[in-house]
User: Which sequence fits this backbone?
């Protein structure tokens, strides 16, 4: 909401998607401890939910995608078919 605070409201991880080659920001609740994965580690989202917010523009609409998850965990090494990879963490939001 833009209000300055010292309280952590969520953790945001930027994941690299191998399907579309872009970055997907995923937020998890603040109660979840900080996850630090190796660069390009394959991870899984626990109970992910995708949502959108759209804004009317002069030429139509802009749509922003948001993904929330209960947690982010390292994928089992025996099953490496995942599409999300950890690349950085951003705690400023």
Assistant:
């Amino acid at each position: 909401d833009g209000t300055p605070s010292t309280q952590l409201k969520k953790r945001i991880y930027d994941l690299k998607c191998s399907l579309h080659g872009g970055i997907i920001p995923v937020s998890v609740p603040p109660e979840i401890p900080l996850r630090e994965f190796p660069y390009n580690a394959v991870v899984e989202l626990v109970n992910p939910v995708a949502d959108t917010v759209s804004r009317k523009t002069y030429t139509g609409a802009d749509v922003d995608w948001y993904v929330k998850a209960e947690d982010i965990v390292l994928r089992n090494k025996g099953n490496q078919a995942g599409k999300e990879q950890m690349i950085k963490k951003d705690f400023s939001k």
The beta strands are 11-17, 23-28, 42-46, 49-57, 60-68, 71-74, 84-90. The first strand starts at residue 11 and ends at 17. The chain has no helices and seven strands.
